[in-house]
Input
Amino acid sequence: MNAKLRKSIEKFVRDNIVEFHRWRAENLNCIALNGLITNKNPYLFRAKNINVAADLITALLAARLSSAEEGVFGKFLEDLSVFVAQTTGRGQKSKGEGIDVEVTLGGVRHLIAVKSGRKWGNAQSIARQKQDFRRAVQVIKQSKYAGEVLPVLGICYGNFRTKHTGEYLHIGGQSFWNLLSGDPNLYVDIVEPLGHEAQRHDDEFKEHVANVTNRLTLEFTEKYCHANGAIDWARLVRAVSENMQSE
Output
């Protein structure tokens, strides 16, 4: 990565990663016990022999945070990819629905939908993305100056080989970042700026997690534990799954 691009990316990351860490803390404060246990499998945790209330809350909280953070950080990576394309002069943010960035190389207009990882959506969202690709191509082809148009599904990480599915180019990892920047080493270089003040943010976050874990554990113990402290699994299962009116 050249020095100018490195400084630009470092500034972008420094300015925007703060929002990710701020969101993590705010998201923690919004977590309520009922929302935490809803749609979770109590039978699984019982089968895993989790008998300490704090351990159960810790497991539930970790699952909740991991899922939420993946989505939010994925949005950060998508924004970073647009920034990289714009900064290198190879592309620009797209106005097309379902398209994040457009890069023109060798006379080919790449319509790129950016996803953080390969497991980015279900069958319905994949079908919708294909529809967005078809619509975007159709709109562009209405111009006689359109040239060649190539839909691209760009994945931010992964070592799979680039391939054309028949509907779009599937590209990821090093190849994806190289497409945006023209730099085959960018995919490695961008990881270091992400660590800027990460330790400080992580220490603060762990303190938040400890406080929330204690708060939720206290509430859980009051609602779903017997007088002797043992988890009342029957009551917990009822809270999660009961849906029939008793006569």
